[in-house]
Amino acid sequence: MKKRFSFRNRIYVVLMASIIFGLAGWYGSSYVGAEEKKFLADRHQTKGIACASCHKESPPKEAVPTTGCLGCHGSYAKIAEKTIKTSPNPHASHMGELSCESCHHAHKASENQCADCHAFTFKAP
Ligand code: HEC
Ligand code: HEC
Ligand code: HEC
Ligand code: HEC
Q1: Per-residue pLDDT tens for 23-61?
Q2: Which of 29, 49, 93, 102 could form a disulfide with 44 if both were Cys (CB 3.0 to 4.6 A apart)?
Q3: Could you name the CATH architecture of 34-125?
Q4: How many angstroms separate the alpha carbon of residue 86 from the centre of ligand 2?
């Protein structure tokens, strides 16, 4: 009798937790500020970086390759240095040097590639 109760209790806790976290996630995502809603390319523009600084062809037609990003951002090592306080470091992991596009998108919301396998709560800008 006692065993059944605690089992049910555990199910209840798991259910409540998923409902609460689910709601919090949904609520949070609908409350992003205007600044955060801008995509990465827009934020580059506000730093004075025009379309042509990322895109070689004009008008832009194709995605910008990782080498294009590294032209300004230096190297993976340099970027990893900037995010050294984030654990684990998204720029220094067993995944090696992923293409920037695995996480960062310029004209749509970025994503967290590590989430394919892990539950890290990274938020790629
Ligand atoms: C012409 C130079 C240049 C190119 C090319 C460039 N960036 Fe940047 N990027 C900057 C500058 C300058 C900043 C603002 C200062 C900083 O955070 O380093 C910045 C900021 C960022 C940030 C932080 C911005 C934020 O809003 O938090 C990310 C992430 C980023 N760049 C990723 C990329 C990726 C991915 C690419 C390739 C698709 C790229 N950058 C191409 C110059 C460049
Ligand atoms: C596995 C996903 C992933 C990949 C791949 C990735 N990033 Fe990031 N990047 C992130 C996350 C997550 C953050 C935010 C980290 C934080 O909040 O500390 C970030 C932050 C940054 C920043 C801002 C650093 C700062 O000043 O705080 C820059 C610049 C950046 N990334 C550039 C790049 C470039 C360029 C590439 C490709 C060479 C790249 N990233 C590849 C996930 C990634
Ligand atoms: C930070 C570098 C960066 C800047 C600045 C930038 N782009 Fe892009 N652009 C990209 C990347 C990376 C892609 C690949 C798709 C993505 O990540 O959203 C892309 C894709 C594109 C595409 C191809 C369509 C597609 O969806 O793949 C077009 C068209 C484009 N950009 C136009 C522009 C224009 C116009 C500007 C200036 C207003 C601009 N881009 C500024 C990085 C940049
Ligand atoms: C294809 C699945 C997969 C992806 C994607 C992935 N990982 Fe892993 N990761 C693993 C496996 C499997 C292990 C080893 C088992 C474990 O400890 O969980 C691991 C272990 C780790 C560890 C434990 C310490 C270590 O280095 O062994 C860290 C930290 C880690 N991953 C970070 C990352 C980061 C950061 C990313 C995104 C850039 C990432 N992982 C993407 C599968 C993945």
Answers
A1: 454 444 444 445 556 999 999 999 999 999 999 999 999
A2: 49
A3: Orthogonal Bundle (1.10)
A4: 10
CA of 124 to the centre of ligand 2 (A): 6
pTM: 0.87
Residue 69: which of 125, 6, 5 has the closest Cα?
A: 125
Q: Is the CB of 105 under 6 A from ligand 2?
A: no
Sole residue written with tokens 């934020």: 43
